[in-house]
Design brief:
Blueprint: H1 33-40, H2 44-60, E1 64-67, E2 76-79, E3 82-89, H3 91-115, H4 120-123, H5 129-133, E4 155-162, E5 168-174, H6 181-194, H7 196-200, H8 208-220, E6 231-234, H9 243-253, E7 256-258, E8 263-266, E9 269-274, E10 277-280, E11 283-286, H10 309-314, E12 319-321, H11 332-335, H12 338-346, E13 353-354, E14 357-359, H13 363-371, E15 376-380, E16 389-391, H14 397-409, E17 414-418, E18 424-429, E19 432-446, E20 452-454, E21 459-462, E22 478-484
Parallel strand pairs: 3-22, 5-13, 6-7, 6-11, 11-12
Antiparallel strand pairs: 1-2, 4-5, 4-19, 8-9, 9-10, 14-17, 15-16, 15-17, 18-19, 19-20, 19-21, 21-22
Protein name: Putative circularly permuted ATP-grasp superfamily protein
InterPro entries: ATP-dep_Glu-Cys_Ligase-2, CP_ATPgrasp_2, UCP005522
Length: about 475
Amino acid sequence: MSIAVQSQFHSYDADSFYDEMFERDLKVRAHYEGVYRTFSRMKPPELAARQQALQQRMLEEGITFTLYTPEQAEPLERTIPFDYIPRIIPKQEWQLIEQGMKQRVRALNAFVHDIYHGQQIVKEGIIPRRMIVGNRYFRPEMAGLEVPGGAYMTASGIDLIRNETGEYFVLEDNLRTPSGFSYLYRGRSMMSEHFHDLYLSSAVADIDQSLNIFLRSLRSLAPSGKRDPLIALLTPGAYNSAYYEHTFLAQQMGIHLVEGRDLVYKDHKIYLRDLRGLRQVDVIYRRLDDDYLDPLAFAPDSMLGVPGLMNAYRAGNIAIANAPGTGVADDKAVYAYVPDMIKFYLNESPVLNNVPTYILDRKEDREYVLDNLKDLVVKETSLSGGYGMLIGPTATAKEIEMFERAIRQDPGRYIAQTTMQLSRAPVMVGGEMTPRHIDLRAFVLMGAEEETHVIPSGLTRVALKEGSLVVNSSQGGGVKDTWVLNR
């Protein structure tokens, strides 16, 4: 039964989804009352004008994302759709998320160290050896190497969702080169400017200090505890889809933005070429995948990396964040074992649960999944960004048949998960507020000695297509500012 709510929110229905703003009877949740009052007073033309002003601001500042689609001969550069109805998380909820994020990243860091050293978790039979040696992100070059500060994953992006009862689940771990920091910060800047009074009255946790913590985490990795290390952000270049973010982070943290051609290897060290000659680089925050880091160690045809970088790394003369080989914990099949890692390494129970996941190498899991493809989500283990997925409830018979053949041919390439009813939040569409499904990418920073910090916000990603559960920006999704309340 549809229950009308005021003005721009009248399209809302009481249904089976968990809504961030409304209770089941469409009563406004207490922590959203200020936002609800503010936007209920605004007329559709004013709402549309504000939306247009924000998108124009993003365009003028170059806040863009490069979208690659099979239909396009050339990649399309566009602004990420930004919705100005903030997603609000109460303090008590955030404390649970923060605790769960820190626990998870500590366990994942311990796992990566173990995999490149004693492999105790494999010897104990908790994780099958084939999942490690057959993992495309496993790097034998990292075996026995002690990484600076013991931190494999300086920057992590952990994706969270909520089910129909409002319980949080971890959907995915992004541990190699997670993106989204810039959209979080620029979104906050625009919201605090365009909705200044609402922002000030909402007791929103400050995020500015987190950039200083990010920089401090990178500095802490400098070899020999150097007090004033030279830090460089290594980018693939201006044609990369996340290049705006690379420039933003380099500017905000005051570090050098470099491409591989700007660096040179000499005497087991890495140097930056500049007008003053060669200057030794102490820390590299890399935003390109392992394969492209060093053509002498990985892909020999890479033109993006630095020949000799891994030699300098092995010699202990430079830190790389995130560490090469971290992706072994990024795999979607390995994800299924993170609760076991938490128990094995930390002797704790998981604070946040995984989405129920089926490993298709297991005969019983595979048979169940093949019989129930129309009800499940299937993911290719090594892909991200919403690619290589089947969402059974919305898939065509032809798509289901195609995935069935692919699973039978190479079951280890896929995992399957229960289809979760992602929570929803209001977005502005044509001057009217309407519900769309969302998730949350939380960002965790780790410095030396596993000192961790969770940025008190996150990137709320929005599936802008009505009914869609795919929130990835590479698939046309949008974003929201996320307000964590500090009281």
